[in-house]
Automatic annotation (TrEMBL):
InterPro entries: K/Na/Ca-exchanger, NaCa_Exmemb, NCX_ion-bd_dom_sf. One of its GO terms (molecular function) is calcium channel activity. The lineage of its organism: Bacteria, Pseudomonadati, Bacteroidota, Bacteroidia, Marinilabiliales. Residues 3-142, 163-306 form the Sodium/calcium exchanger membrane region domain. This is Calcium/sodium antiporter. Keywords: Membrane, Transmembrane, Transmembrane helix. It holds the Pfam family Na_Ca_ex. It is found in: Membrane. It comes from Ancylomarina salipaludis.
Length: 308
């Protein structure tokens, strides 16, 4: 039965990803905000809903390895697997704004996460700092976009109300689809005696990253490249500042030495690798061979996780 739930979960996630892209594109046109900003904010929040609910639930139920592993594993798979696979399907041009502002914010949030985790604990006050930084990032991003008068906007295909309805429906679908997929994956993995940390970093992280995968692939196929890249960077920012921030405000989260000395290093390294792969900034693009490199790095990471 768990294998059937896996398939149903994937179908729901793919359908919801399509709705999220449609709603996001319509909103960007109505409010004269670039699709990149919509990808970094509205869409990334929607696709990060599964991570939020999984980590919150894990923190409250006393499973810190799942709460932390879900965030770290999702950030790794978002870049190395999701963005890599999307680039293999269709090379992705990357706007300079993503590299000059969004990527530094993502890297800064990642480094702050590592700094806060040095005492093996993410405490309430640190979670509050994360949430304040998230709000500041959101406000600055939207204001910066509204000040750009040079961008042309397509005529929206949906009304504002319908766009919001699509985003809400998509977010609900992403949550339930991810819940089905993650639950089934965890049951299957436990049947093979896999540890909670490994389950969180691999199956749970992959399951909660499937919304990003579905949304990014569909956005790329619809030629909305800014949403593909912006969605991933925005999701990684939201995972740390929003998901981890809110979870640690609710309850202090323990960070194991394995996560601190291995997984967080991989997260930082893969984030930096993304920057190197899209250079030079003026002609930034993720070519197919770069997508293969990212997927290969993800495969190596998973190998080491299970080898441990």
């Amino acid at each position: 039965m768990d294998y059937l739930y896996l398939i149903i979960g994937f179908v729901i996630l793919l359908s919801s990803g399509d709705l999220l892209v449609k709603g996001g594109v319509a909103l960007s046109s109505h409010f004269k905000i670039s699709t990149l900003v919509v990808g970094v904010t509205v869409i990334s929040f929607g696709t990060s809903a599964p991570e939020l609910f999984v980590s919150l639930g894990a923190a409250l139920s006393g499973s810190p390895d799942i709460a932390i592993g879900n965030v770290v594993g999702s950030n790794i798979s978002n870049i190395a697997l999701v963005l890599g696979f999307t680039a293999i399907l269709l090379p992705l041009p990357v706007k300079s704004n993503s590299l000059k502002f969004d990527w530094p914010v993502m890297m800064g949030a990642s480094l702050l996460f590592v700094a806060f985790a040095q005492n093996n604990l993410i405490e309430t006050w640190e979670g509050i700092v994360f949430l304040i930084l998230l709000v500041a990032f959101m406000i600055f991003t939207v204001m910066k976009s509204r000040g750009n008068e040079s961008e042309e906007f397509k005529k929206p295909k949906q009304s504002i109300f319908m766009a919001i309805v699509l985003i809400v429906l998509a977010s609900v679908g992403l949550y339930f689809g991810a819940d089905l997929l993650v639950g089934a994956a965890k049951n299957i993995a436990r049947g093979y005696g896999v540890s909670e940390r490994v389950i969180a970093l691999t199956l749970v992280a992959f399951g909660t990253s499937v919304p990003e995968l579905a949304t990014s692939v569909i956005a790329a196929l619809k030629k909305e490249m800014d949403i593909s890249v912006g969605n991933i960077i925005g999701s990684n920012i939201f995972n740390i500042l929003g998901v981890l921030g809110l979870s640690s405000v609710v309850k202090n989260i323990f960070v194991s030495n394995d996560v601190l000395n291995f997984d967080l290093i991989w997260m930082l390294a893969i984030s930096f690798l993304l920057f190197l792969l899209v250079l030079p900034i003026k002609k930034a693009k993720l070519h197919r061979w770069k997508g293969f490199v990212l997927v290969l790095v993800y495969t190596i990471y998973i190998f080491f996780i299970f080898a441990q």
